[in-house]
Amino acid sequence: MKKPTLLLCAVTLLCNLSLLKVSATEYTNQEVVSNLQHNALKSDLAYKIAESLTVEVGPRLAGSHENALAVDWAEAKLKSLGFDKVYREPVTVPVWQRGEASAAVIAPYPQKLIITALGGSVATPTQGLQATVIRFNDLQSLIAAEPSLVAGKIVFIDQKTERHKNGSGYGKSVGGRANGAVEAARKGAVAVLIRSIGTDHDRMAHTGLMHYQDGVPKIPAAALTNPDATQLDAMLTRGHEVTLALKMTPKDLGTTTTYNVIGEVTGSSKPKEIVLLGAHLDSWDEGTGAIDDAAGVAIVTAAAKLIGDQPKRPARTVRVVLFAAEEIGLIGGKAYAAQHQAEMNDHYIAAESDFGAGRIYRADVKVNSAALSAVQQQLSVLAAQGVTNGDNQARGGSEVSLLPAYGVPVASLRQDGEDYFDYHHTPNDTLDKIEPAALAQNVAVYASFAYQMAQSILPLRPLTSGSK
Amino acid sequence: MKKPTLLLCAVTLLCNLSLLKVSATEYTNQEVVSNLQHNALKSDLAYKIAESLTVEVGPRLAGSHENALAVDWAEAKLKSLGFDKVYREPVTVPVWQRGEASAAVIAPYPQKLIITALGGSVATPTQGLQATVIRFNDLQSLIAAEPSLVAGKIVFIDQKTERHKNGSGYGKSVGGRANGAVEAARKGAVAVLIRSIGTDHDRMAHTGLMHYQDGVPKIPAAALTNPDATQLDAMLTRGHEVTLALKMTPKDLGTTTTYNVIGEVTGSSKPKEIVLLGAHLDSWDEGTGAIDDAAGVAIVTAAAKLIGDQPKRPARTVRVVLFAAEEIGLIGGKAYAAQHQAEMNDHYIAAESDFGAGRIYRADVKVNSAALSAVQQQLSVLAAQGVTNGDNQARGGSEVSLLPAYGVPVASLRQDGEDYFDYHHTPNDTLDKIEPAALAQNVAVYASFAYQMAQSILPLRPLTSGSK
Which domains can be identified in chain B, with CATH numbers? Predict the structure, then answer.
């Protein structure tokens, strides 16, 4: 962005594409990229980082004592790896404590059900509550329901999550988790239970963030495991009225300060321009947060470290941001955007790894549409890792998805998430779910992506409607 | 056994094998067997039985209130299916209640670990206990250890269970579960934790029976999930002393009476001679006991029902025995043997289904070795279901394994148990783990096996050393 001719080019969108192609290759150092990919694939650095975070810290819910340990861990880890600059930036977060959650069928077939509280849920009355169940296929059916049918009952939203490589089943079903409590409470329900937003058949309930709304009563919200949801459905299918007992003891403990932790490999010629690689440091509290998101922390940290280990730094700074409090509402990302607003124009491009450790198969971007083909030419170095170029509609993932609103170009390095929602937000999110070779492929892709972008002379802005 | 010539033949072992082969086919009715297999494969009866037991009763630990409901369920189910005789026989069982079990690393990396009490374990002191951990590769290493290294510590037996189609990994590792507490206590340990005897990578601890020994202190015994065992091992591998807190509240509540539930399809010409098909009605308390052993209950019940539905009854009685209290020490099987001792000579052959719902691939028997080839000829009707003949060293499975000591021939219809120990004795043992088509194949095999045996004129006794 510092060269007037290129700036003009970006602003006027009059760039000659063939010129861009030539320019794009000027800074490309095939030898460096090959070397980065080779080093990434033979290195166990990322796996060791993920292992260290999950074993030595483990679960690290935003705002918890364990999360504070994770911040210390992250700062120490980035320093020990020799990043040029390592620092933390404060983020104010609400503190929610899970407590216990239990459910049981009281009639007609008494037995326990396995549940977990949704993140942010209020508690039941101390002695618990009992009510009959009303089942809905999905959130939309609940919204359409006659309130008198719902009043006084426990709403059961029984939508299954579809399994797709790109994880698109999640978006289709997560509405019940996010908004089920509000919609159920509007109609007088006393609690809401959802079928876990997950593709597994394990007795593992999937937690995740839920919302309340001013003016609507706050009712307890929890997820049943998939087998328990099937069990409850089987009882209801018999035509009986089913009565449940529910007891949950989560607590809202006010707010506290946690931190985004940042490490930089300083650019050689354009140190103020930033290629941002993000991941999130916090996790839900039931697993050790291995695929969500120790994997991402490990991938972007190892990728930047490998770039820093090259004989010559790339032009731009590679900034690793380990965001706080992603799980409870992208809070670290919002804080970063606010704190770095003056610097937003210096963010050349940003990407975030927050979808486990499956292999990357496609690179989507969101850039000025005139630059797309040249950017894709630069990213063709990823083909050696099995990554094809995708579209110009990337969202960038998690916190980074907040940045296009500030004009920042983003990339989505799409991972195979076929089994991601088997483990997501459950106690089962543990280190054994990460395949070391796939993790290393991610590092190879992120390292070469970041290097190419840190060297590129392409103007990627402004984001145009064509890139939406 | 009623024909003098055949009895003589059996006793003297002078039978002409070619004569036996001719005799063996006399009663064989290929049309009936084909019909049974065809009906089994198109019927959802077994699946409906398994669904009914797991949904309407659910977990049914021997001696529990739920187990009493299961007995009522079984008697009603057999009656509703039109069995000729349905009755229950009392079995005295100890009553053990699981209570709660929690564990946490106190130092150096504080975090929770997921455990479950082993069946029969005593409780910790009310306030729990804390101690450092000493790890052993297996029970043998513990037995060989210097007592001073073990005294005052929590013993961690970290043996992995191998995955095999025939389930043979279980036997190799289960010793630590059964005898770990005794061996650890002999050396002064305060508790024992084992890596779950299971082939999965889920945060699901596998319970199962453990033993104490007179004269050796009773210490609490629990299983860690596989990922938690790996986590603990990773901490120990760092060379730190690891301190755990452990709290368990199981209770021994004396004894109670439960029941073996029996249903018979009365034989047409030799009604006092019995082909016994067994399964067990009790389950562990954390799953709904679908693969262990609602599947077996469903398979043998449906198989006998299909035989009873044929236009003509086979010669012998097919007796379905739904045993009590298998999980806590084959107690129902021992009671059956004691109560039916006078009738043992009338048990023509026995088999038990207690290894989930995987497809049957092999039929082993334990019969007089002179009869082996003729029996295998009779069982060649199973080939249509993909079942080959195996060896003459069958144990018969679970309770039925007690019967050869009384001279009773047995068969083992071997199921594919590749994934059985992923779910065995965990909360994950639920209906969704049963594949309906595989369950139906089991019914086809059991029905045709039982029919062939109920019609056979082969003398199968005495069991000879060659059949051991």
Answer: 17-96+255-467 (3.40.630.10), 99-249 (3.50.30.30)
